[in-house]
Amino acid sequence: MSRLATPGEVLQLIRSGEAVTRADIGRVTGLSRPAVAHRVSDLLQRGLIVEDAEGPSTGGRPPMRLRFHAGGGVVPVASLGARRTQIAICDLAGEVLHRTDIDIDVEEGPGVVLPLLMDTWEKLLDGRDDVAGIGLGVPATVEFAAGRVESARVMASWTGVVIPPVIAERFGVPVLVDNDVNVIAMGEHRSVYAAELDDLLFVKVSTRIGAGVISGGGILRGALGAAGEIGHIPVRDGGGVLCRCGNLDCVDSVASGTAILRDLRAKGRDVASLADVTALVRAGDAETMAVVRQAGRWLGEVISGAVNLLNPAVVVLGGDVAEMFQPLVSGVREIVYRRSTQLATRSLRIERGRLGPGAGITGCALMVLDHVLSAQAVDAAPR
């Protein structure tokens, strides 16, 4: 660094492992020893770093190593689903300290759901007062900068609601809200793929269908947060199914979990839930497998266009439908490799998500930590 490094920038060096002793910090930043001591003392006093075991000696007294203090604060997070919500308290490294899942219909509205979330966080916090920030993922299009729900896939009563002020009034910390698929994509990328690639397309196939785009290592939200809304891209030969958006044959209306259940019931199958569909697939029921695979082909049709447009290194399929049904994944692979360009698919991988239901929790925590532990936020925080 050619200019004087701030305490926030020194923290980034320690978190990344680039500088783990005072001497390292001086070498990397060019700061004088008194300046290094001042910044390290500031971070120690704020509980953001700790002095660890002695480092290797190069002659003389061994240096004390500096380590980021993940226990220096907590981050309450929640990932809302249509019927089930995951709630957790994470440390400053994004590791889950406490977690609980609750069954609640998000259509009961923000006046019911948000107080329940906040009450649950307070119970899990158990008196801790070192909350650094709060993160929330919701199944809706979100204007990220404002935290405003613009349009919702399964929670129409939330449209137009600005969530952060409601939660901040109670906890008094930064509150970040994003689309549920964006936070899951962030969780999958940073936890599984970040060391090897910067471009990823995550597609959630569940009650509804949505996508999160990682481009250049970060979330691609678009101008107003609407990037990734692939559920309302129409497919060919969908049968004229009316989508809730008013158009015909949107992939959401023909390939989602809801659509699979509808089509199997129309064929006389007694399926009350996706678990019933799984049982039929495992039993080798040919008609069920055909319905699921066709859903995968329709989904693959939309994903192939995204692959040509975005050129991701990997397409990750998540959500309960993708995780439960191999025929759907096979149908996606069949169409994507057939219809996407040769260059875009030369090294493309199509994989199932690895984090499972916990990806949303992880992504929410990372979203908050990227904000509250940024150099700018650390430097602006009151001492």
Q: How is the topology of this model organized?
A:
Blueprint: H1 7-16, H2 22-29, H3 33-45, E1 49-54, E2 64-68, E3 74-80, E4 84-91, E5 96-103, H4 110-125, E6 134-138, E7 140-143, E8 148-152, H5 164-171, E9 175-179, H6 180-193, E10 200-205, E11 209-215, E12 218-219, H7 251-255, H8 257-266, H9 274-282, H10 286-310, E13 314-318, H11 319-324, H12 326-339, E14 349-352, H13 359-372, H14 375-380
Parallel strand pairs: 3-6, 6-9, 10-13, 13-14
Antiparallel strand pairs: 1-2, 3-4, 4-5, 7-8, 10-11, 11-12
**Do you know the CATH architecture of the largest domain?**
2-Layer Sandwich
Biggest sheet: strands side by side, in what order? 5-4-3-6-9
**What's the CATH class of the largest domain, please?**
Alpha Beta
User: Which stretches are low in confidence, meaning pLDDT under 50 for 5 or more residues running?
Assistant: none
According to DSSP, the number of beta strands is 14
Report the CATH superfamily of the largest domain: ATPase, nucleotide binding domain
The number of helical runs is 14
β-strand amount:
15-25%
Overall helicity: 40-55%
Q: Give average pLDDT, whole number.
A: 91
Largest sheet: 5 strands, mixed
